[in-house]
Amino acid sequence: MEIKSTLEKQRIFFASQQTKSVSFRLEKLAKLRSAILAYEESLVEALFKDLHRSKAQAYYLEIGGSLREISYAIKHLKKWAKPQRKKSEFFWPLAKNYIIPEPYGVSLIIAPWNYPLQLLIAPLVGAIAAGNCAVLKPSEISGNTAAVIKQMFDEFFPDEYIKVILGGAETTQDLLKEQFDYIFFTGGEVVGKIVMQAAAQNLTPLTLELGGKSPCIVDKDCDLKKAAKRIAFGKFLNCGQTCIAPDYLLVDRAVKESLIAELQKAVEKFFTVNPRESKEYGRIINSKHHERLVSYLNEGKVLYGGENNAHELFIAPTLISDVSVKSRIMQEEIFGPILPIMEYDNLNQAIYFITSRPKPLALYVFSNNVNFQERILHETSSGGACINDTLVHLTPEELSFGGVGASGFGKYHGRASFELFSNQKSVMRQTNLIDLPLRYPPIGSWSLKIIKKIMK
Question: How far apart are CA 420 and CA 178, in angstroms?
């Protein structure tokens, strides 16, 4: 009943045309920023309870990133919202052509548990900037953060504009039965297929931000120390629970042992020799995921780490080798602090390994050789790519983010978020000053000759 009444209220409010005003959108973006700042401490506490995230990480991974997204949209919204003038063509020389971005209407945003604030706010910024109303469904798995998010939105925004609805899988199913104008989902492939099937029933446009097994290729010609630090950072941040974390390494056989040694040094520098005591090291979200991850440890040779504690939901940063390509750890997205290391003898072998699998959300290359870099970029496909680093390609606002193939579709961040939640409506303003007779029947042979000449 709550879902249906919310949708009815939002449709009425959207029909009032208020959300289409640029000044209204700017005001609401500023209000969203104020809401996050007002609830900053509560969000930090909730993120610690859910993911053992330190105050510093809670800020730069979730709160700061959300505020930055909002500020960028506020700065550029007036420009984005302007109609884009397009050239006229020969047949209609005095016509005026435009692309006018218009909001879809009532949008549904379903967020995941691994970055429960940032991955809700980032698409919401696009929805607000484009002029939509929104229903928000945070993940019940990160329940402490979801509760704070609901409290925050209940205080700062009316239900007819933005509404947070809490609940589990059944609530999500109930939401998907309703007719929305746009759906934005971040999560895993299995649920992504369910969302897409539900959207198809109502012909609802949607974006799927999924995940997959993002490869990391390490060339023998690279700075191994920097590579190890950046790989360890990308893999073990948030205890490996990041959709674009390096899922496995493909390392040139000549430098495999040296890289492993450097990875160990990097892990111990970040989290000490006892990461269980480190304030900077997270925890697995729940017992179900902890049990799944621990089972992977039996599918290869543990080179480093492997310590775990079910009561504390702790798994140490772990390096593992001798894994079969048919094992679960190489078939499923790991989404945890376990890093399989595989070697290759030549670049063709590495490229074939990547292209013979579903297209990943991210791809990482560590090499000083430009030709090596370009071959991988040219011969593989991924949602995004980063050379000589991990994760950071997500941060520039001018770079859109999204998947391809099994890792999802639809790009957002910065202007791309605004465009994603906008229908790009083509408009022609025709003139009455002239009227070409060639367009009207009957079309004789002379007229056809002219038409053919023009249209070539």
Answer: 21
For residue 427, give every residue at least 6 positions away whose Cβ sits within 8 Å of its Cβ, in sequence order, or none.
Answer: 83, 97, 98, 99, 100
- In the block, which residue shows the tokens 């706010």? 121
CA atoms of 167 and 138, how far apart (whole Å):
8
The rounded distance, in Å, linking the Cα atoms of 401 and 3 is 30
Rg for the chain, CA atoms, rounded: 25
Q: Among this protein's residues, is 243 annotated catalytic? A: yes
Q: Is 2 helix (H, G, I), strand (E, B) or coil?
A: helix
The candidate with the shortest Cα–Cα distance to 155, out of 34, 74, 55, 276, is 34
Residue whose C-alpha is closest to residue 120's, from 131, 134, 101, 102? 134
d(CA 134, CA 183): 10
Sheet holding 182-186, edge to edge: 162-164, 133-137, 106-110, 182-186, 206-209, 408-409
Q: CB of 13 within 8 A of CB of 133? A: yes
For the chain, how long is the longest CA-to-CA vector? 87
Place of tokens 């249209």: 455
Separation between Cα atoms, residue 351 and residue 230, nearest integer Å: 22
Please pick, among 243, 262, 386, 419, the residue that the annotation labels catalytic. Answer: 243
Which pTM was predicted?
A: 0.95
Number of neighbours of residue 285 by Cβ within 10 angstroms: 24
Rounded alpha-carbon distances, angstroms, from residue 341 to 241, 250, 332, 433: 18, 6, 15, 70
Query: Token pair 């890289």 is at which residue?
Result: 259
Q: Which of 62, 209, 333, 343 is catalytic?
A: 209
209 part of the active site:
yes
109 Cβ contact list (under 8 Å, min separation 6): 120, 123, 124, 127, 134, 135, 136, 137, 184
Beta strands in 258-383 (DSSP E): 301-304, 308-309, 314-315, 318-321, 338-344, 362-366
Which residues sit opposite 97 in a β-bridge?
A: 86, 428
Q: Which two tokens stand for residue 235?
A: 């893999």
The H-or-E segment that residue 250 falls in is: strand 248-252
Question: Cβ(364)–Cβ(390) under 8 Å?
Answer: yes
pLDDT single digits (tens) 333-378: 999 999 999 999 999 999 999 999 999 999 999 999 999 999 999 9
Nearest-10 crossing angle of helices 64-81, 118-130: 20
Q: What is the pLDDT of residues 282-338, one digit of tens each?
A: 999 999 999 999 999 999 999 999 999 999 999 999 999 999 999 999 999 999 999
